């Protein structure tokens, strides 16, 4: 039983390709998506594999710790690991803007799902109320993002115009500030992005966030090179989809007391809080490579932990 839970943010520093392994449309290598929302997601198994891979070198001097926390690699049937990761879900998606370069787009559904995970982790969020929005409406905290003036002011995202709502939902600004403080670490390297997330978080309808999350990802053409000629192979053109940089995802990290092989009576068994603390101390505010295409710089995400209730 997992008795210690922690909210875990993943902030994309480079494009991320967590592959779905199948192609149903024109994109040959699509990213993972939730079936019911079509939002990008990271499978928990892939997240755990990325953490384990990184921990192998980071914990090289701590004999046996890797298997004690993540479970044995060779004899997996001996006992389970003491750490687990839920699938990561979308919190904010970067969308190109006429003013301000880009915004962090979110929706009532995405924020309510964040609040639900926070409750499971025992993390208190600022109280907020985000009612339904029309598909042509947006909640805009930073008025500098608006084009034109007066009653004709509009938020322009890609080629679409959104009318700013007259009244800002209760608690939305406080929530944006909380998110900026917890999804990104302190320090001069992240000060700009913390400030931008706090001010340029934009609330769209659930339908519009899904539209951008489906149609505003990074799609890159690749060619297969013929080994003999050194030139592009015939029929070797393919397209790979990536989650764009600046996307914010959230997951749940869960820890249990160290699992033991049947019959093992070790006295120094790690408690759930100790397992969580070892993972947090190692990875908090650290870049982690997640997903595929690591050799082309893909998959660099910044990890932040928050909470850790027992």
From TrEMBL:
Residues 10-301 form the CRISPR type III-associated protein domain. One of its GO terms (biological process) is defense response to virus. It holds the Pfam family RAMPs. The keyword Cell membrane does not apply. Keywords: Antiviral defense. The keyword Ligase does not apply. InterPro entries: CRISPR-assoc_RAMP_Cmr4, RAMP_III_fam. NCBIfam families: cas_RAMP_Cmr4. This is Type III-B CRISPR module RAMP protein Cmr4. It comes from Desulfacinum infernum.
């Amino acid at each position: 039983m997992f008795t210690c839970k922690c909210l875990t943010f993943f902030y994309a520093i480079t494009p991320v390709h967590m592959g779905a392994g199948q192609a149903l449309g024109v994109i040959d290598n699509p990213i993972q998506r939730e079936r019911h929302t079509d939002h990008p997601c990271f499978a928990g198994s892939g997240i755990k594999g990325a953490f384990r891979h990184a921990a192998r070198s980071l914990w090289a001097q701590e004999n046996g710790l890797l298997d004690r926390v993540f479970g044995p690699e060779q004899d997996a049937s001996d006992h389970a690991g003491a750490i687990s990761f839920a699938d990561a879900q979308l919190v904010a998606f970067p969308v190109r803007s006429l003013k301000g370069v880009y915004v962090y787009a979110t929706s009532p559904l995405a924020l309510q799902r964040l609040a639900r995970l926070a409750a499971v982790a025992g993390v208190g969020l600022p109280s907020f109320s985000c009612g339904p929005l029309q598909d042509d409406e947006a909640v805009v905290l930073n008025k500098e993002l608006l084009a034109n003036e007066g009653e004709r002011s509009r938020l322009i995202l890609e080629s679409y115009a959104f009318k700013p709502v007259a009244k800002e939902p209760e608690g939305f600004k406080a929530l944006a500030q909380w998110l900026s403080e917890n999804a990104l670490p302190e320090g001069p390297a992240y000060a700009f992005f913390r400030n931008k997330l706090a001010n340029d978080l934009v609330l769209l309808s659930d339908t519009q966030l899904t539209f951008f999350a489906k149609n505003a990802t990074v799609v890159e053409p690749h060619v297969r090179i013929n080994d003999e000629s050194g030139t592009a192979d015939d029929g070797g053109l393919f397209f790979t989809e990536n989650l764009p940089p600046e996307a914010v995802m959230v997951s749940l990290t869960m820890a249990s007391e160290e699992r033991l092989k049947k019959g093992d009576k070790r006295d120094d068994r790690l408690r759930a809080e100790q397992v969580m603390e070892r993972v947090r101390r190692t990875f908090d505010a650290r870049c982690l490579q997640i997903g595929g295409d690591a050799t082309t710089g893909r998959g660099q995400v910044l990890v932040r932990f928050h909470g850790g209730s027992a």
